Amino acid sequence: MPVVMPDLADPRTVALEGAGEEVVLRVKRHPRARRISLRADPRDGAVVLVLPARAGLDAGLAFARSQQAWIRARLAAAPRPIAFAHGTRLELLGEGIEIFHDPALRGPARREGALLVVGGKPEFVARRVRDFLRGEAGRALGPMAEAKARSIGKAIRALRMVDTRARWGSCARDARISLSWRLAIAPPRVADYVVAHEVAHLAHHDHSPAFWRVVDALTPHRAEAQVWLRANGAALLGAGRAG
Predict the structure, then answer these.
(1) Where are the domains of the chain?
(2) Cβ proximity of 111 and 90 under 8 Å
(3) Spatial distance between the Cα atoms of 163 and 69, rounded to a whole number of angstroms
(4) How many CA atoms lie within 13 A of 214 on its CB side?
(5) ∠75-125-119 over CA atoms, to 5°?
(6) Which fold does the domain 127-237 belong to in CATH?
């Protein structure tokens, strides 16, 4: 029986009659929506039921029931999340590593050759891996971004590694750049492109032809990285995500 999980503004859980399988739908009200619709969340492939401000939940559920073939197709095509757990293999800055959990160990996660060793209780593994990867991303991508900025005569005011849900990075008009720490487990050419993209915004706060010329001057990997991100970005954005 499919189960509908509402957004945080509506604490109810509603059951849908279905074909015997469990499907989670996120219910979201949108003030500018003109009709009831379904969409797939690009972050994790989950199905979202979008309701206009005045639409009733019952009407939305009736629409969802009529679209169960579409829902099943979208869920089948959803990216498989990458779990941060014992035995998971990752590419860390282009080098293969495997998560190794030893409950007897204490302290933060650490790399030992081809292993990423994590101690403590199993429920702490994902968080400790995330903390480790955030640090590695900062150490690798920070100097890369600063070097690219200097090459175009710009300076970065501040750079943060953040837990983004839909974007790989951002550049504010005050020259503060944010990058997803998950770029640490993306192919190096993809990380190089994303860093170049955000640094190019120091020169052009748009996506004009002049902006793309700066991007291409900062990285030779734009086309390849864009193809990879379209195919694999959603799965990577969900890697190790809690809840």
Answers:
(1) 3-77, 127-237
(2) no
(3) 33
(4) 24
(5) 160
(6) Zincin-like (3.30.2010)
The residues, ordered by sequence, that sit 6+ positions from 165 with a Cβ below 8 Å of its Cβ are 43, 237
- Looking at this protein, which amino acid is placed at residue 92? L
Q: Give, to the nearest 10 degrees, the angle between helix 125-151 and helix 188-200.
A: 50
Run means of pLDDT, 10 residues per run, the chain, 243 residues:
45 44 75 87 72 87 83 73 91 95 94 96 94 97 98 97 88 96 96 97 96 98 94 85 61
Whether pTM exceeds 0.85: no
Q: What is the DSSP code string of the chain?
A: --EEEE-TT----EE---SS---EEEEEEETT--S-EEEE-TTT--EEEEEETT--HHHHHHHHHHTHHHHHHHHHHSPPP---STT-EEEETTEEEEEEEETT--SS-EEETTEEEEES-GGGHHHHHHHHHHHHHHHHHHHHHHHHHHHTT---SEEEEE--SS-SEEE-TTSEEEEEGGGGGS-HHHHHHHHHHHHHTTT-SS--HHHHHHHHHH-S-HHHHHHHHHHHHHHHHTTT---
Cα distance between residue 95 and residue 115, in whole Å: 11
